[in-house]
Every structure is written in structure tokens, then in C-alpha cells.
Design goal:
- With about 350 residues, the protein is an alpha+beta fold.
- The protein is built from ten helices and 17 strands.
- The protein has two domains: about 160 residues, Fructose-1,6-Bisphosphatase, Chain A, domain 1; about 120 residues, D-Maltodextrin-Binding Protein, domain 2 (3-Layer(aba) Sandwich), CATH 3.40.190.80.
- It is about 40% helix and about 20% strand.
- It has a six-stranded mixed β-sheet with strand order 4-6-7-8-9-10. Strands 12-11-13-17-15 form a five-stranded mixed β-sheet, with helices on both faces. The protein has a two-stranded antiparallel sheet with strand order 1-5.
- It starts with 9 loop residues before the first helix and ends in a 9-residue tail after the last helix.
- One of its GO terms (cellular component) is membrane.
Amino acid sequence: MAPMGIRLSPLGVAVFCLLGVGVIYHLYSGVISSRLAAFRADSSFLVRQKRTVDLRDLLAVCVEAAVLGGKEVKTVREENNLNEKSKGETREGASEPLTLGDLQSHRKMFNLIKNTFPEITVNSEEHDNVVDKVTWSRDIPADILDKIEGGKEATPESITVWIDPLDATQEYTENLVKFVTTMVCVAVDGKPKIGVIHQPFSGFTAWALVGEGSNMRARSSYSISPPKVIVSRSHSGKVKSYIQDAFGNSTTVIPAGGAGYKVLSLLEMPVSDAASTDQADVYIHITFIKKWDICAGAALLNALGGSMTTLKGEDIDYSDTPLNKGGLVASVGVDHKAVLERLPNWDPEKH
């Protein structure tokens, strides 16, 4: 008997071919899918890598922004073109003026930082819709290059920048210009990391990158028995009696304008500025205060081994809302805990 042959109908051949193509497609698509997934993972990693911010570059931009804003502040004051208005009153009843110097400085400082690092959060004391196309010069000051290495990075999501375009506006309107500063602070994960305090009328700029370096240093000696305590001249509340209760009636209380100036009074200033800057041992504030007023000073003090806390000794979070309700104690070169232990119980929210 002759062997039987296997015959496939045209339909069977077509089905067989389709099955084969399906198997091949399935296998091939699986390979492609796995390779695409790997590519996406690699691409995502590369994107994350590219989206970090070099903190030395950011420090240089902050210095440039503070100086640029300071030029606006100085020009408006010298031309006596303040165009003063009122933003209202503080909880203590003190006037909060707004001048053209505040706004012009804000426009330069805010836009320079935002144009250079568009992904980071920038909070400023002032607000308007004027867009300035100002860009970073790409210059890094020589003293920063000398003290700070590049390559220290942070993600944009972890960064919050606080700008005070004109600290001590009240004193600015009174032409008490030694108190006036422009300030920039960078907080990383809520902790002060970069601090810049610029004095427009002397041209001096203090800066620090916590853990890396600063152009400032603490003075050689301080005292807390009793200390010289610097306080706000326009938002003082009952601070004098509070301080005398803590350290005694012989305590020297120095009223001054501007939180930036008060922090500088705790540090060793250049010879050219030392004569015009008060020297204090501790800075205390017992009422509410905004974070753009204090963040830069906190970074400077932290970089030098000092501290800035609430009256209860709590760290201040610089990643959230602008208002610090816990009061303020700032020091360097002294035992911060010993200062806190002397302070009477006080709740700024009740005063």
C-alpha cells in the first residue's frame, strides 16, 4: 500500500501561517517591550540626573541677585523717588510701608533667579506681574570659587528660595540706610543651606553655603552675663521687659532695623563696615516674623556653628508657609541652650 500523503487545504495553510506570524510577533514584541522599558528607565534616570541644581552656581546667582536688587534700592533712595504706600499694619500696630525700591528690587531679584532656575520655588516678600528678562552673567565671584567646590547638588523639588528685596523698609523711608539689606536664602528640604545678606549702601555682601564655607566669621568674644541683645526698633512689642526678666536690668538692649542687619551685628564685620554696625551677643524677637526676613541669617549662623531657633528652641521649617509664629533667638559663639534656658515662658501667638 502506498504511503498516504498529508494534504493541507489552502485554508489550513493560511491558518498555519497566521499562527506562526502570531508566535513570532508575540516573541518579538516582548523583546521590544522589554527594551523600551529599559530605555524609558534609562531616560528617566538621565532626566533626573540633568534636573539637579549645582549649589555653588545657585549661590553665585543669589549673590548676583542680591547685589542687583541692592542697586535698585540705592538708586531709588538717592533719587528720592520712593513713591511710598502702605501695605497695612503689623499685629503690633506698626506701619508696613511699600516703596518703589521694594518693587524694583523684587523684579530684578525674583526674575534673575526664576529665569536661571525656572523649576525651583521662589518666595518673595513682594509680588507683581512685571516680567524682567534679566539673566545670570555666569560669573562666579572669586571668593566663592576659592572657598566652595562645585558638584554639590540638590533636586529642584527640594529647594525653596526666600527673597527679601528690601529689608528694613521703615528705616529706608527715614533714610536710616545702614539698616537696609537685600537678602536671599536657599532652603533644601526645609533647612537653610545658602544665605546672602547684601548692604546696598556700603556695597558689602555676606554669604554662606552651610557645610562648605562662608566669607564671614564669628567674633573672638561674646558674653551672656549679661549679653548685649539686639531687637527690632519697629516691631518690638514688650521685648525690653522680656529681656530684662531673662538677663537682668543691667542688660544692654539695642533697638535696630532689619533682621539682616541684626544678624550681621552678631558677626565680625570688615573694618570698613565695623564702625557703622552695632555689636550684639544675641538677637531676640518675640513676635511673629516672616521667613524671608530670617532665613538668610539662619544659613549664615548655621554655617559658622551658630543657631537660630524659636523661643522654645525649635528648628524653623523653611519649606512651608511664610510666617514664623514662634519668635526668634539667634546666636553664634555662645551656648545657645544656655540662652534659651534663661528665657521666660512666652507665647507670641497670645501677644
